[in-house]
Amino acid sequence: MIRRVLLWFLAVAVLGIGGTVAFLSHRSPDMRTAPSIKVASTPERIARGELIFGTAGCADCHSETDPTRFGFPVKDGGLGKGKPIPELPGTIAAPNLTSDPETGAARFTDGQLIRAIREGIGYDDRVLFPMMPFTEYREMSDEDVQSVVAYIRTIPPIRNALPPSKVMFPVNLFIKSLPKVVESVPQPAHSGRGAYLAKVNGCYFCHTPTERDQPVPSKAFSGGHVFSLAKDVRVVSANLTPDRDTGLGTWTEPQFLAKFAEYKDYAANGPPKIGLEYNTVMPWLAHTRLPDDDLKAIFAHLRTLPAIANPVVVHPDAPEEKPRQ
Ligand code: HEC
Ligand code: HEC
Hints:
By secondary structure, this protein is mainly α. It has helices spanning 2-26, 43-55, 58-61, 110-119, 134-137, 142-152, 171-174, 193-200, 203-206, 253-261, 264-269, 284-287, 292-303; strands at residues 83-84, 90-91, 93-94, 166-167, 210-211, 214-215, 226-230, 233-236.
């Protein structure tokens, strides 16, 4: 009897999965042809784009970085050259975004770059693996995304051919539902600026616990998002909600600014060597360059959140780390 029930259950499960796969294979992603825009380059846009390329994390994933130094700085001569990303489902590389005509972003039109960044569709009409955070960048304003493209065009060429990405079955089917067409995004209103900056700079993504790799909105900014730096070495994001015991409840605005300012010297002169178990994915080296007004807007936004009690051990695999509570 039990056996029959089990067989029946198995049959239903197999049919169910088969049905879902059949459904997903026929489903086409929400996509459009790349817009035929030509981005006008100005010195202001290039400067703004350079800042965003750092603070929004593009430089981290699309460059060769040094894992032996604090904050994983970009290696000299490694900016924008792209790299294969190991341990993902398939062969996946963060592409070369330098202006190299054969292996870099010079191969892509401005419209293709904008569509890839905000809509998650590659130049070849492929759905991008969502480690490329287009689900966050879809809120990036037209002005900001065009500034990023203006800056990308100035990155000195590095010839670095990478294997074309191929996302493994069935993950390639499940990610089809993620892209969304994004036509036009205005600059955020003054009152929405903190939330906007926390979104496009990854604060929301990294500081929110995830389920199936996506942040859980009801636990926004409560920390506990685990990042694996190597096998058995993790770093965990801090709780940024106003909870007094486990979050930033007792922090003042000047303390918040000072915390970011601490890393200015590292950003200017290069960060020190540090053991992997004390290293961090928190982009201190890039975020220390955020203007005070941006940090103040982010802090004000964090203050409006519900306090969530969530004690976090930031470096759980470091010998001397105590729980933060
Ligand atoms: C967390 C890592 C990560 C971050 C942050 C990130 N990328 Fe990516 N990016 C990737 C990966 C991985 C791919 C390849 C995905 C694939 O091939 O399926 C990718 C793909 C792309 C592509 C697609 C090129 C094409 O048409 O095939 C562009 C353009 C791009 N990224 C630009 C950017 C820019 C600009 C930023 C910052 C605003 C950025 N990326 C931030 C990891 C990242
Ligand atoms: C790539 C992931 C990532 C992004 C993006 C990120 N953080 Fe973090 N953050 C972390 C991790 C992990 C830690 C804990 C390790 C550490 O302190 O460096 C942390 C720590 C912090 C701390 C220190 C808290 C404490 O108790 O000492 C603050 C403040 C902070 N982040 C604010 C921000 C803000 C604001 C943003 C956006 C502008 C942001 N983070 C973006 C991962 C991230």
